[in-house]
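Study this fold:
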Amino acid sequence: MNILGRKQRWVVGITGASGSIYGIRLIETLLANHLDVHIVISQAGWRVLQEELDWSTTDREGILNEKFGHYPGVYQYHPNSDIGASIASGSFQVDGMIIAPCSMGTLSAVANGSSDNLLSRAADVMLKEGRPLVIVPRETPLHAIHLENMLKLARLGVRLIPAMPAFYFHPQSINDLIDFVVGKVLDNLRIDHQLFKRWEG
């Protein structure tokens, strides 16, 4: 429950940057914790899900139900073109939004207030309503425009968590590295988890 007495409700956006597994793992973890999740995936995001995770994208609602329908939390999928969806309005209360992974194109749109699709509009709502917005940028190398856009967002209070896994906990698999990044996102949202072993000195 949140301070308003209702079940927590989060928005997760997945864009066309490499690393779509971060967003998928995040959704799984939120749903496993009995939380509600509103999902937005850009057109390029669907392409990356197909290329990296071998998802079939011909029946998008069907694949999402296959992957997430068995969790105790409830998810709702919004097409990125649906600018009139619930999460496009500040009057629809959510606890925050995470874009994971976030392409430099989406990051630029958010930094410059370009709300021309549901994903960037939902992020704009987080900024105007003062709600948590966490971005997991996934690009390398970075040039000055990328860095300037990140600085602009950081000054607005956006939490930037680059997909940079640690190695002090001796990861044994790729899943361990993925869980570390997702765990850092959850830490910033103050959501309890056991995804990685914490440093104890």
